[in-house]
Amino acid sequence: DSVAAVPAAAGGDTLVAEVAAKDTKQAELEKEEEEEDDSMRILCLHGYRQTGSSFRQKTGAFRKLVKKTTNTFRTIRYDFIDAPHLVDSPSAADVDLSGVSNNSGLLCLTGGSAGTERAWWFSKPTGGFNASEQSDWEHGLEESLKLVVAQLRKHAYDGLMGFSQGAAMAYIVLRHLENEEPALLPKFAILFAPFKSPCSGHNKYYDKRVDTPCMVVSGEVDKVIPREMTEALLPTFGQLSFFGHPAGHIVPAKAEHRTKYLSFINLFDKRPPR
Q1: What are the alphabetically sorted keywords of the record (predicted)?
Q2: Which stretch of DSSP H or E encloses residue 40?
Q3: Selected catalytic residue, list 222, 245, 257, 269
Q4: Catalytic: 139?
Q5: Which residue in 85, 202, 249, 257 is the catalytic one?
Q6: What is the CATH number of domain 39-268?
Q7: What phi and psi, each to the nearest 5 degrees, are found at residue 30?
Q8: Where along the chain do its domains lie?
């Protein structure tokens, strides 16, 4: 009898262990869902010739650096989307806004895979884009604006983050929302190497200032979007926090930068009511 009882007990122990494991897994899932519901959410717009996926990959160091607020320790969730327009093989006249730098502790941003690189809009009839070359021609901005606004309708985003052409796009999105759909406005924006669109048809987005609080980040030796191009945009911000760094066309992600980012983000760190 005692021999027969051993497997029964062992089997019972196994069953108890399985139930306990399932309960633990369920508790972990519920905790993750709760943290996700309570997280601070930021929508991220990639640069020219990048994709949402490549921008996510290349901002890993930044997201690790800035993963929780330090007021209430809310998790910060970053959502990445693709611009709607595919970029053909770049011509020599195209300015590469995907990012260049290999400095230690600084984020090097590269483009997406061939055939998948995307743009928020074009400034040339040939399908290219040059941020420093004025143009009376443009294509694609309205489609991109509709796409970003549609994404903002899906979730209550706390923040908007953009790099290079994505930062310029984020600026235009803020101006549109302030004029047309203020209920969708995020609480803040972080813009890396923003610039004024070179397309004359976009001048209407710069006739008034942006009142949404913005952190603008610019590299002293940026060769793609020179500091002066970003500085020319600064007077159009109503509530500005400027972060100048000594590097180039990158998202700076050194340990000492964490305080700068979080001191800005913490201004908007209030838990939603339950």
Answers
A1: Hydrolase
A2: strand 40-45
A3: 222
A4: no
A5: 249
A6: 3.40.50.1820
A7: -65, -35
A8: 1-37, 39-268
Mean pLDDT of the chain: 85
Cβ–Cβ under 8 Å, residues 45 and 167: yes
Q: Residue holding tokens 């020219």?
A: 48
Q: How far apart are CA 36 and CA 70, in angstroms?
A: 17
pLDDT tens sequence across 207-260:
999 999 999 999 999 999 999 999 999 999 999 999 999 999 999 999 999 999
Query: Which among 101, 164, 197, 218 is annotated as catalytic?
Result: 164
- Is the pTM higher than 0.70? The answer reads yes
3-state SS, residue 219: strand
Residue 48 DSSP label: T
Q: Is the pLDDT of residue 7 over 50?
A: no
Answer for the pair 163, 251: CB distance below 8 angstroms, yes or no: yes
Which residue type sits at 227? Answer: R
Give yes or no: 164 in active site.
yes
Nearest to 194 by CA among 138, 249, 136, 259: 249
